[in-house]
Amino acid sequence: MKEKTELTALLDKPEFPRSRHYDHDWMLDNQMGPNAVWLAEWLSNSLDLKPGMRLLDLGCGRAISSIFLAREYNVAVWAADLWIGPDNNWQRVQAAGVAERVIPLRMEAHAIPFAAGFFDAVVSIDAYQYFGTDVLYLSYLSRFVRPGGQLAVVVPGLMQPISDDPPPHLLQPQANGSCFWENDCWSFLTAYEWLSRWRRCAAVCELSADTMPEGWRHWRDFERALELSGKGVFPSAAEALDRDRGAYIGLLRLRAQKAETQSENLYDPGLGAQVGID
Ligand SMILES: C[S@@+](CC[C@H](N)C(=O)[O-])C[C@H]1O[C@@H](n2cnc3c(N)ncnc32)[C@H](O)[C@@H]1O
Hints:
Oligomer: single chain
CATH class: Alpha Beta
CATH superfamily: Vaccinia Virus protein VP39
Bound molecules: S-adenosylmethionine
Largest sheet: 7 strands, mixed
Number of helices: 12
Shape: globular
Helix content: 25-40%
CATH architecture: 3-Layer(aba) Sandwich
Order of helices and strands: HHHEHEHEEHHEHHEHHEH
Strand order of the largest sheet: 3-2-1-4-5-7-6
Number of strands: 7
Distance between the termini: 65 Å
Strand content: 15-25%
Structural class: alpha/beta
């Protein structure tokens, strides 16, 4: 009973009013990062979603963001992920009652098997940092969005730039033995750094980026809830987030509109044939 009350205090957030209607155990059981349902809600606030739109949820993990978007906005979502297979996600999609609107598939982000302009929007939650730091990637991804359509991502990122050395307090081991800063954290960028990459892509326009108010606190609370419930799969990062208090680490949201123009698709396997070297 005490644990339930503590969990509710950590997870029932007025900042995410739609997410409040989702079962806490379901969110904890299917987590792969800082609560995909909260992040999907925050991202969706910056989007213009209409019933019947076609969305790609890229790097959807256990598809809880896809289920949230389908339920809340009555959109059709292709829930695409590399590590989590479609069989696993399909069970969850059916149980959530959105089998008509969520289509799970295994997909690598550089091999998207859809027609150009197929999607009204592409969203990505806590995944874009794994493949999107390549300056060529946005141009490739935007190919699958119709002109005027939307691209929007939430990533963990930096609140201020860092030099060649990570902040010492993020390298310091936590009581559970793990350090927050691992080598892969070099894919964490500031909003400015993301925007300067996106600005160089002629296939998108109307760019914007912002940071989640108190993002570190929400992330820490979710980590605490995972600790408390014993449902954490990875070592908790709560202590490090608490130590940092949003000085360096937080959550970023980036948004763009697909322009009328599209540049070359450099990931197209047929490109060699087009230039006569296949
Ligand atoms: C930290 S998990 C987040 C999953 C989910 N969006 C969430 O927030 O719970 C990152 C996800 O990115 C996916 N991913 C990483 N690299 C990928 C790639 N190259 N193509 C497709 N998905 C990728 C992984 O399969 C993984 O599920």
